[in-house]
Amino acid sequence: MLRKLLSVIAFSLVAGAAFAQAPTPPLFATTKVEGTENVYIFRYQNHQAMFVVTPAGVIATDPISYGRPQAAKAYIDEIRKITKAPIRYLIYSHHHDDHIAGGALFKKEGAVIVAHRRAYERLFQRRNADVPLPDQIVDGQRTIVLGGTRLDLVYTGRNHSDSSLVMFLPKEKVIFAVDFNSLGAIPSRLAVNDSYPEEWQASLKRTLGLAWEKMIPGHPGPGGRLGTRKDMEEQLAFFTELSAEVKKASEGGKCFDPAVKEVRIPKYQTLTGHDANIEWVIHRWCGYWGRGI
Ligand SMILES: [Zn+2]
Q1: Is residue 17 part of a domain?
Q2: Residue 22 Cα, ligand 1 centroid: separation in angstroms?
Q3: Model-level pTM?
Q4: If you measure from the C-alpha of residue 23 to the centroid of ligand 1, how many angstroms do you get, rounded to a whole number?
Q5: CA 115 to chain centre
Q6: CA–CA separation, 206 and 220 (whole Å)
Q7: Where are the alpha helices (DSSP H) in 115-186?
Q8: In whole angstroms, what is the distance from residue 226 CA to residue 75 CA?
Q9: 80: domain CATH number?
Q10: Residue-wise pLDDT tens digits, 162-196
Q11: How far away, in angstroms, is 62 Cα from ligand 1 center?
Q12: Domain range for 91
């Protein structure tokens, strides 16, 4: 009996120790995208960026160093572990600081900064010293071919911001698309603050019109997974259905209150972050349908 009790205690101690040592993810990590030869993801805490390595140089994206200048250095050091080729480009996914602060170190390496025209205009207005202005501007679309790799920069319209570029690798069938598709989740307050209801859906449709299979998001997906076309189709369906409900509520004089409390679509209530975020999303769509904001 005593032996049995002791073994139970011993097991509990071991289990307790294992629980206490539950692995915390490293501060940053670099992974190669499966099925590609030269496409990588650099993650630092909860932000991530794509970079492409070619014999003629590196195409880097988003420096992700907002409030942590050391992330840009870590990013470049990680690239240097893979190649000594020059960093030729740094492409901004959109104009929000949390993704693009920290470009100065890349400029020092000789990178040309490329962004959408609206990103340039927004950044020019604020002149944040942590975010160097783009050297080159994209309007509708631009193709970069470097060392045998083709990367298309495609403006699919206003969505989470008015300056989002989809970075599309046609041969690899991979896109890097930031902040306008929440994988299996309701978009957060920060995702809808600067957003464009209705145009967002049109942008998702245009993005789905590109022949990609895997999406690298700007924040790691659940368990670190990549995005799928199904994720994007689900977000499009969610916005489309929610928009129709909010429009009805608005016509009934219910925006903003009580619509933010009342409009619910049961099948989306299991999405991550539903209870925390649904009111923010309805508030944003209420602004649009109620007042044209
Ligand atoms: Zn953003």
Answers
A1: no
A2: 31
A3: 0.91
A4: 29
A5: 16
A6: 23
A7: 117-126
A8: 20
A9: 3.60.15.10
A10: 999 999 999 999 999 999 999 999 999 999 999 99
A11: 11
A12: 24-291
